[in-house]
Amino acid sequence: MNRSSPFALVPDWGVVPLRLGAGIVFVMHGYQKLVIFGIDGTTNFMAGVGIPAPQVAAVLVTALELLGGLALIVGLFTKWSALLLAGDMTVAVLAVKLKGGFFAPQGAEFELTLLAALLTLAATGPGGFSLDAARAAKLRSAGV
Question: Is the distance from CB of 17 to CB of 23 less than 8 angstroms?
Fold first, then answer.
């Protein structure tokens, strides 16, 4: 890459707003499931839309959204977090949102947008200003 270009940092920093935005959205949705709806309310919702083992699913999805969202925010295990959250969004689209059409709030528009963001993060990694990038730089400087 030509480091004299004014766009030289774009590959390193271009996905950071995407990662932070998606992370915040997932932390807030995990918080909503845990604190506002509660695990019982989340379980009832999941049972109502036909998710198997709804109580287990409620706990797992709540934890995934909270912890996966935090991981995205700090850029730790970004590719894995993004892939797991992409699975979460795939289930949300197929099990709940697709029957509501495309447009929000009933349709899949929002979840498809998150899915696209997550797949982008899984493919590109966290970008700059992340624990993953710091860990990789430390390994490079150690000659690993």
Answer: no
